[in-house]
Amino acid sequence: MCDRHVREQPVPQLDHTVSSISRRHMLRSTAIGFGAMAANILLTEASVSATTTNPLADRPTHFSPSAKRVIFLFMKGGPSHVDTFDQKLQLDRDDGQELPFAKPRVQFAPTGKLLKSPWKFHPAGQLGIPVSELFPHVAGCVDDICFLHSVHGTNAAHGGASLKLHTGSDRFVRPSMGSWVLYGLGSENDNLPGFITICPTLAHGGVKNWSSAFLPAYYQGTPLGVASQPSTNAKLKYAENSNVSPAHQRSQLDLLQLINRQHQEMAGDHPELEARLQSFELAFRMQMEMPRVEDISDETVATRKLYGLDDEVTADFGRQCLLARRFAERGVRFIQVTHSDTQVQWDQHSDLMRGHTKNALEVDRPIAGLLRDLKQRGLLDDTLVLWGGEFGRTPTAQGQDGRDHNPEGFTMWMAGGGVRAGFRYGATDEYGYYAVEDKMHIHDVHATMLHLLGLDHLRLTYRYAGRDFRLTDIAGTVATRIVS
Questions:
Q1: What is the total count of domains within the chain?
Q2: Domain CATH code at residue 397
Q3: Domain carrying residue 375
């Protein structure tokens, strides 16, 4: 291998013929049918490289990182940048007039004349950065935020744009960015998954948005709950066994480990079998650790109020953000928090005023609470918080009071993790339709994120089907000006 992140060798398979008494034969002969089935599944899945028995071990970076982990706040459906963080005075002035330049050749749906924002913007922070009145709490945190005003993508449909944001591709099944981060860095916690997605949506890409695709399965995201259910249901399934005590489970696992060790001694050195032995141990440890993380009853009244858990409007998303902090402080590498429901949450093709008002009320206080909580705990310095949707929205009207999808130019923002705080990078045109200054493609966002984590996106590769793949495909440029 020319690079530690390139896996070129074929995955070894366990030879079950080396011993006259195999594990599978032993399980069958003792009539433990379910155990035989489970063992067969575990032992025939893709196993670890012969170079390590722990594929999730903490790994060195390519260069010194400024961030150790990522919290991605995904606003499903596409929030309008011109109504939230990208003030356009000329749009206000020319409300109701025709757009004075050509619209994109490919549009999701026809739109009409210019539509000004129904919300006022107010200067915030030391530099007076304009923020919509939709986000009064986040406005109080702008001195810690780096706004990316020139992000653009290639797809005007939710499914393709969402996949592009999460995986770097809108056409093919590719590993998600959380899987790439875990693959590149390993895990800091032996008792928890390294990549967790809280209340993910099952629409528009669904599981592909947190899939490891052709990366080994241990880099897959672990979902907690779904977007269509309250976040109180966002718990790991089957983590607790009410029928068997932990001590009894421990004794069962010790016996299983003893049998496996004996088989290993007879069969010789098999790193893949060693990895399976460790997987049983991880599953047991996670039974102990995960319920403690998910139980927020030990949080103070002040902390719960900070996240908005005292208000039914903010409580659901607030709990997701609080869980994200609890996972982050325990070393989980990549945590995604999704604001969505059975509909496409931020997708206001009509009734923009009502929809965006409702959405912003649900997330504004929890997001600000997360940023403040991370900062006061000393976690914001090495935690990168990324906010955004799959695209923005048009400055032209759809119907009377809506906006269409717009991947041509929109706003995302980063906070913490070594980014330049209280800074605005890039710009859209005077109406907010196209990115025109310091344009930042989704691949550039990914490259910059990996750079902050100490990973060179050009070197973070994985060989599959005869090609070295990476999150940024054959593109991607680090936005070095936003790095502090």
A1: 1
A2: 3.40.720.10
A3: 69-238+300-482
Q: What is the pTM of this model?
A: 0.85
CA distance 94 to 113: 9
465 belongs to a structural domain? yes
Spell out the SS3 assignment of 405-431: EECCCEEEEEECCCECCCEEECEECCC
List the pLDDT tens digit at each of the 484 positions of the chain. 344 454 433 333 334 333 445 555 554 555 444 444 444 444 444 343 433 457 788 899 999 999 999 999 999 999 999 999 999 999 999 999 999 999 998 889 999 999 999 999 999 999 999 999 999 999 999 999 999 999 999 999 999 999 999 999 998 899 999 999 999 999 998 889 999 999 999 989 889 999 999 998 889 999 999 988 989 988 887 766 777 787 887 888 888 888 888 887 887 766 566 656 766 776 777 787 888 999 999 999 999 999 999 999 999 999 999 999 999 999 999 999 999 976 678 999 999 999 999 999 999 999 999 999 999 999 999 999 999 999 999 999 999 999 999 999 999 999 999 999 999 999 999 999 999 999 999 999 999 999 999 999 999 999 999 999 999 999 999 999 999 9
Decide: residue 194, CB within 10 A, 0-12 exposed, 13-18 middle, 19+ buried.
Answer: buried
Q: How far apart are CA 197 and CA 320, in angstroms?
A: 10
Would you say residue 271 lies in a domain?
no
In-domain check, residue 422: yes
